[in-house]
Amino acid sequence: MHSAISMNKTEILDAALNEFSEGYFGLSDENRRTLLISLSKEYDLNRTQLRELMKQYLELELRTGDKDVDIVHEEEGSFSAFYRIERNLRHSLKPMYEILFERLNTHPGGLRFLSTMRADILSLLMEENLAPLRALDSYLKEKLITWLSPANLQLHNITWDDPASLLEKIVAYEAVHPISNLLDLKRRLGVGRRCFGYLHPAIPGEPLIFIEVALMKNVAQTIQEVLWDDPPIAESEATCALFYSISSTQPGLSGVNLGKFLIKRVIDVVRKDMPKISTFATLSPIPGYIQWLLSKLASAERSTSTFREMLLKPEEENALLDATKELASGKNGMEVMRNVLSTHHEWVNSTSLREALQIPLTRLCARYLFLEKKRGKALDSVGNFHLQNGAMIGRINWMADRSEKGLKQSAGIMVNYIYKVENIEENAQSYFSKGQIQASSDVMAYIEVIIFHQRTSVVNMICTSLPY
Amino acid sequence: MHSAISMNKTEILDAALNEFSEGYFGLSDENRRTLLISLSKEYDLNRTQLRELMKQYLELELRTGDKDVDIVHEEEGSFSAFYRIERNLRHSLKPMYEILFERLNTHPGGLRFLSTMRADILSLLMEENLAPLRALDSYLKEKLITWLSPANLQLHNITWDDPASLLEKIVAYEAVHPISNLLDLKRRLGVGRRCFGYLHPAIPGEPLIFIEVALMKNVAQTIQEVLWDDPPIAESEATCALFYSISSTQPGLSGVNLGKFLIKRVIDVVRKDMPKISTFATLSPIPGYIQWLLSKLASAERSTSTFREMLLKPEEENALLDATKELASGKNGMEVMRNVLSTHHEWVNSTSLREALQIPLTRLCARYLFLEKKRGKALDSVGNFHLQNGAMIGRINWMADRSEKGLKQSAGIMVNYIYKVENIEENAQSYFSKGQIQASSDVMAYIEVIIFHQRTSVVNMICTSLPY
Asked: Measured between CB atoms, does B301 come within 8 Å of chain A?
């Protein structure tokens, strides 16, 4: 195995690349680990050379003076020297494993192999977070981003006429709303539906990512409307294109944001094709909501400070306590809520509980989506994805996905993100640079209530804790 | 115009990119020059930041000791610091114009635009060889090489059934043997012929490069056999695939060696398709031969030293002087030869002159192809192209191309380069690393004569110049 890599350093033999990639697939997890770690450590930079170049560069700097502005006006000679060392520096900052990556990229099947290798690196990193492995991963990711630039990808309208081998991939990789049978697949590719995928010439017959679209009269509020509206409306009546599922087929391409370009391309294609369609929206899951809410509730319960956060309004708490007399207990509304949400979704079958939970869960969901951040970006992964692509938060839909998964992730709530063609770039830009999230007035109404509510509690708490 | 570039620094607006590229096409040559020079100078590196990072890195080096080997075994912390600064260094070594290139690459029509821009940069460099412009060019070239990696290209078998808009491009860009009319084109795409092109998804309907192939019984010795063999042999009888023309359609992709990958792919496709074909060869022009020979002859004439090189053998010189009594004059064979070759190819119509020239011109051509180097690589550009792709010099063909261009470039001589599937990688490797050229025994026979001949002259000359 090691000889297969080292051959790659001196020979350009296709055979060696084949041998290497085939050999790799035959390795046990443990041997793959050994190989990847040795690749990351032993085929790294030549740091001696790098250091040498840096010293040369800094000396050159001293000789030609210290002002960048002047350098521009300097004579050809010293000018060229800067460019030359800079070029050499770029070169010497390339790790040796770059050679292997580059060669595999131009080798038949190599890109797919690199994607597999990256998936392995990612799962290794979950176990042990080693610096050289992290560097290997980030380098490979950069390379994949370059190679999979949208200019190299082909948008393909996937239909029932496509080869079964391709459709099989759609069934296998649909990650959001699993496809139950052939009829379900046929419906998703039939009248009133579209499915678009990005194909790369080097990975034929397998979309790297695909998106499912429903053509509708109005923005759907529940996933049931999308998956079970039989028969669908006539396409000529549609005014809305609803993106209800987006799935990536390559775990090794994690962090390579193909979805952004796919959505933009699909919007362009649909607008050109069906000028009557004026709304582009998603019906999206909120994968992190309940997990976040449960931990918020738990920490509020643990806290004995007077500053402890009141997640429920008094009237919400009362309604909840009334509705849960038999089902769950707890010393206050927040504990009851946590208990209700932690059990096996029995609350869904109780009309009174559903009614008692609707307002607080919707309100807290708006807060989660709009206010909760991690490093300046939306905490929710799906939210972050659409916001960075330029969408806004449109509407929060109660009881929109009653599947086991939907109830567990978000108490059945789903959200419509809206892509307004004229604002996409602007939204993406202000989210990217300032973390600013756009939301509809419906959603903002919940937020304003929260901000107001919090402000008054803070005032109360300050009053309480003053020493008189 | 400048505002269009500077917008690119802060916004991701497609509109700005469109405006920029459309605006560019509307510019005069002089304004394009101004724009490109300002792009190369004002959107360059941030050298202050780069210097800062280098200092940090070298300090880190001091703190953690001087031995690379030890660093590998060091603890996580300092390890991560190296990787972090290296990543930052890579980033800060990217000139600002990288942003523009990257954005244009993902923008519809952007890749074609970049190729136009590079063509402009190249022609500017022919006029004034400015260092920042050279750096801009070499950076853009590297980017294009990455984006146009063979993994992103599709091999297309171009046939008479292709759209006229694509075939039109073939006619327009065929650079080796111009296509005279529709019938000529149809023949080149008909029985016994193939034409393959590389298409990029971002430049649809226009191959970046294409190659024309003739299926033959034997390796053709003259281009007439290829272009006018009507009717062609039955394809089932073919044992040889002859590459008789390879043309690039994008001057902006100069230096991006797509031809190498195209030839390899075409060999693979033809072998799979027609297992009877065992020989892959070219019939290639020798664009630099006569120019080289004329300057050799001129410098031999000018030289008064006893070391002056004898380019003709005595018997060749006599035969030439006999044959040129009426047509050309000169004080010796070399001067006569130069005069004959400098005139308007009248010698081709004289049987005696053709006979007198055949041996020396063929012999000197073998020397030119096999021995004449520039920076360790074959001096002839077409030769260098095929040798770096792994071919060998097969046969030198007298009176192989009597067109005006053929006579001017190489006195009508053409050469067959042979691609032996089993040696391609090995040849490419030894040419790349050692400048070693492989040639058939036929060609080597001429070389041995030359080496022997030169050796004896040197011996003679040494004897002559010794002081006794």
From this structure: no
Mean per-residue pLDDT, B355-370:
95
Q: Same domain for B188 and B318?
A: no
Structure tokens at A309: 């956060």
**Do both A176 and A137 map to the same domain?**
no
Phi, psi of B69 (to 5 degrees): -60, -40
Instruction: Indicate whether A81 pLDDT > 70.
Output: yes
A12 closest CA partner among B270, B429, B143, B427: B429
Domain count, chain B: 3
- pLDDT of B62: 64
Cross-chain Cβ contact B151/A87 below 8 Å: no
Tell me the chain B residues in contact with residue A106 when contact means C-beta distances shorter than 8 Å.
149-151, 261
Give me the pLDDT at residue B452, please: 61
Q: Which domain holds residue A61?
A: 2-150
In the chain, the amino acid numbered A323 is A
A117-134 pLDDT, tens digit each: 999 999 999 998 899 999
* Whether residue A228 sits in one domain with residue A102: no
**Domain edge (last residue) among B236, B253, B282:** B282
pLDDT in tens, A196-221: 999 998 888 899 999 999 999 999 99
* Residue A204 DSSP symbol: T
Secondary structure of residue A75 in the 3-state scheme:
coil
Of A51, A72, A86, the CB nearest to B93: A86
Average pLDDT, chain A: 86
